[in-house]
Design goal:
11 helices
């Protein structure tokens, strides 16, 4: 644990991300997990995803995970540990790459997210997963992607699906309600006008027919403020929809992410995710 905390400090101070994540991956147990790497889901854009499945998976729930990185950086290989952590709990985990800014803007990475979800649905059974129990999940910018796919119908409609095809979605310090924009990069990603920027906000699309949501948030997060998760929970409740908000004291933005794996002792984030997935995958009596 001490080594992991040291590595986390190096990461937060700007150390080499590839080296850092290699160390995190090395510390995540992989026993009982089968990895299926480099599955191409969009040959045109050179996009692939990795699948981590329980060794004896049979009709297991499926979670498609999108990493964060301000929509600017990230690699699926860095998040092998997330896939292994989920798969060790009986979940088929899909870790997907997507195109990043400045190569694309919002429509590009949401298009890619939808394509990854479609691929996961179509291929779930091959890995022992159940496409009827399909979830999207993401951290930070990836949480924004997961939330948009679950709330704004146009993105999944583009691949012949709808938010109702999802059993639920999980946001880990996700960005749901982050206007106004003042960073030039984000203005370029999401648009200059109020109308353009409004279409980037997941909270604006919650209208009463979304899948259940689990919102995980560190109370000490200074990158994506807790107010965003609180606002999203409030909008869900206004619409009478199923939502759970888990606030973790003293956890910041990256600390919450790593509580899913090497820092699991700091908060029950992984337990909360697994409980939510299992509950929403259980047929109604």
């Amino acid at each position: 644990m001490r080594l992991t905390l040291i590595l986390l400090t190096i990461f937060l101070l700007g150390g080499c991300q590839s080296t850092f994540f290699a160390a995190v991956n090395a510390r995540q147990p992989s026993k009982g997990v089968v990895a299926h790497r480099d599955n191409v889901y969009d040959a045109t854009h050179g996009l692939a995803l990795d699948v981590y499945a329980p060794a004896q998976a049979n009709h297991a729930p499926v979670v498609v995970f999108f990493y964060g990185g301000s929509w600017k950086n990230g690699k699926r290989q860095w998040y092998r540990w997330v896939g292994q952590a989920l798969a060790s709990q009986g979940i088929v985990a899909v870790i997907a790459d997507y195109r990043l800014w400045p190569a694309v803007r919002m429509d590009g990475f949401l298009h890619d997210g939808a394509e990854a979800v479609r691929w996961a649905r179509d291929h779930a059974a091959h890995f022992g997963g159940d496409p009827a129990h399909l979830f999207v999940m993401g951290h930070s910018a990836g949480g924004h992607i997961a939330a948009m796919l679950a709330t704004d119908k146009q993105w999944l409609a583009g691949v012949g699906m709808k938010p109702g095809d999802l059993s639920g979605w999980i946001g880990v310090a996700g960005a749901y309600d982050f206007l106004p924009l003042d960073d030039p990069d984000f203005i370029d990603m999401f648009g200059k006008t109020p109308e353009q920027q409004a279409r980037s906000q997941p909270i604006n699309f919650v209208d009463g027919d979304e899948p259940p949501a689990l919102l995980l948030q560190g109370e000490a997060d200074s990158i994506v403020f807790p107010s965003e998760a609180i606002s999203m929970e409030g909008r869900y409740r206004q619409q009478g929809e199923s939502v759970e908000l888990k606030l973790y004291p003293k956890l910041g933005h990256e600390g919450l992410l790593f509580a899913l794996g090497p820092l699991h002792g700091r908060a029950p984030a992984l337990d909360d995710v697994v409980s939510f997935v299992r509950e929403k995958s259980t047929p109604a009596q």
